[in-house]
Amino acid sequence: MSLLSGRWLGGLGTSAFVLAALAVGRVVGDQLPDPFEPLSAPREHAVGVGETAYLREAELTVTGTRLGPLLDDGLSPVPTPGIWLVVDLELTGAGSDSQLRTWEVVAADGTSWAQTRGLTRTCSLVPPGITQRCSVALEVLPAALPGATLRLGTASDLRYDDVAVVELGLTAADVEAAASDAPVATLPLELVGADGQGAP
C-alpha cells in the first residue's frame, strides 16, 4: 500500500469515527440504576457565560464562544460533519495544581458530545494562584446547540466532584449564521500571575 493510500484511508477512518460519534452522541445517565448515584453525583454549579464557577480545585469562567464549519488548528482548516464550537475560558487553580479534564456539550434532550479528536484544546496544568486563558473545541450536531449547556470539570471522573454547568445561550439563528462563517481557532495558552501580569 502506498503512503498516499494509507493517509487517505486513515483520513477516511477518522471521518467515519467522527460522523458516528456525532450521530450517536451519548445519553447522560444511560446506565443501569446505581443505588449510590445520589451520593456520587457531581455537585453542579450553574453559571452563564462571563460568570465564575467556584469548583473544589479551581475557579472557572467561560469568557466567550464561537461557532464555525472549520477549525483552524494552525496547520490547515479541519472540517467536521457537524459544527465546531470553540469555548474560551479562564481557569485559576485553587489550593493545588489544576487542569481542565472534562468538557462536553449537553443538549436539551440530555444527549452529550465530548472530545472526538486530539489537539482540540490549548489548556494545560497550572499551579495555585495562576490563571490560564485558553480554549477547547468540540464537534457537535448543529441541531443540538440551541438550549445546550456546557459541562466543565477538573477531573476525568466527576463522581463526588464539582462540575460547572454553563448556559451557552445559543439559538438556532446563531447556528444558522455560523454555517457559512470563516474558520474558528482556539486561543493560544496565556498564563497570568496572581498580580495580574502576564507570565513570561
UniProtKB/TrEMBL annotation:
From what superkingdom does this record's organism come? Answer: Bacteria
Identification of the protein by name: Uncharacterized protein
Organism for this UniProt entry: Ornithinimicrobium avium
